[in-house]
Specification:
mainly alpha; 6 helices; 52% helix
Length: 165
């Protein structure tokens, strides 16, 4: 693995982080609002779900503002996903260390990705690609299952004894 900055992904369940001595978000809603607004100099994730711009979500390519050519350079992420993750499973079922590995590899190759809060563009790319790959794997299982059943049906029809007339 290339030397560089290591990133650990915060899971979505832990949205805010506070420093020692500051009140916990449950202790003061005002302090948690202030920490959300000015607590980080990284680019926050937009609201909504990636890939669903018509349903309150956002288009990742538009949000990054890199244009089509810049976005195509991120194909490296797909290679890292295939190498380090189980492509038959969705993102929520992946090993968290493997997700960290993919994020760290992408940040090592594209240092600008570290300027995004909790690596959200990388996680979005992982989510979208795994969704595609896992659906393809399910589709292949269905096709191979139905074709093998059809082949067994043909064999059993061919082996059945002919009725005497």
């Amino acid at each position: 693995m290339p030397k560089g900055k290591s990133v650990t992904i915060k899971l979505p369940s832990s949205d805010s982080e506070h420093s020692e001595g500051s009140p916990a978000p449950s202790e003061s809603s005002l302090s948690s609002l202030e920490s959300e607004l000015g607590g980080s100099d990284k680019i926050p994730k937009p609201s909504g779900e990636v890939g669903r711009p018509g349903c309150g979500g956002y288009n990742l390519e538009d949000q990054l503002g890199w244009g089509e050519d810049g976005f195509k350079n991120l194909k490296f992420v797909n290679k890292a996903i295939k190498k380090h993750l189980d492509t038959t499973k969705c993102q929520s079922q992946q090993d968290h260390q493997a997700l960290d590995t993919v994020c760290n590899l992408v940040i090592a190759k594209f240092p600008d990705m570290d300027s995004f809060e909790n690596c959200w563009p990388i996680l979005n790319l992982i989510q979208m690609h795994l969704k595609y790959l896992s659906s393809r794997a399910r589709q292949k299982r269905r096709i191979s299952g139905s074709s093998s059943r059809a082949a067994k049906g043909e064999k059993s029809r061919g082996k059945s004894p002919k009725s005497k007339s």
